[in-house]
Amino acid sequence: MVQENDPLYRMRHALAGLALALLLSVLAAALAGRVLGDAFGGEYGTRVAIYGVLLLHVVIGAVVLFIKVARFETRPLNGGRVLTWLASLWLWPALLLVARKPPAS
């Protein structure tokens, strides 16, 4: 079947999970931008700057996770998997540090 040879079809679970997690992250970044912006002065510019930085963080995380992890994701998508993708989008720098191997001596 043609679908079995299509790499995007094989990564459909990862693509869907990543897309849903990114959508939820946009909403979470907006909320966090508002809360943190209010905590740091309450100006609109401050809230927008914080939202922008948070949004950039999760978009870069989405790219990094897609490159590093998506091709290995084969499990069907469910709520738990979406939450895992969501957490991974926010914690991707820690995941890279844990995955890094110590240099050979």
Topology overview:
Layout: H1 2-5, H2 7-10, H3 12-39, H4 44-68, H5 79-90, H6 92-99
Helix pairs in contact: 3-4, 3-5
Structural description of this entry:
It is a single chain. With 105 residues, the chain is mostly helical. Helix content is 77%, strand content 0%. The chain has six helices and no strands. α3 (12-39) runs antiparallel to α4 and α3 (12-39) crosses α5. It starts with a helix and ends in a 6-residue tail after the last helix. The model has no long low-confidence stretch (mean pLDDT 86).
Descriptive labels:
globular
Q: Describe the biggest sheet?
A: none
Provide the gyration radius in Å. 17 Å
The oligomeric state of the chains shown is single chain
The span between the termini is 48 Å
Structural class: mainly alpha
Figure out the total of helices.
6
Please count the beta strands (DSSP E, at least 2 residues each).
0
Mean pLDDT: 86
Order of helices and strands: HHHHHH
Strand content: under 5%
Helix content: over 70%
Shape: globular
Low-confidence stretches: none
Give a short summary of the structure.
This protein is mostly helical and 105 residues long. 77% of the residues lie in helices and 0% in strands. The mean pLDDT is 86.
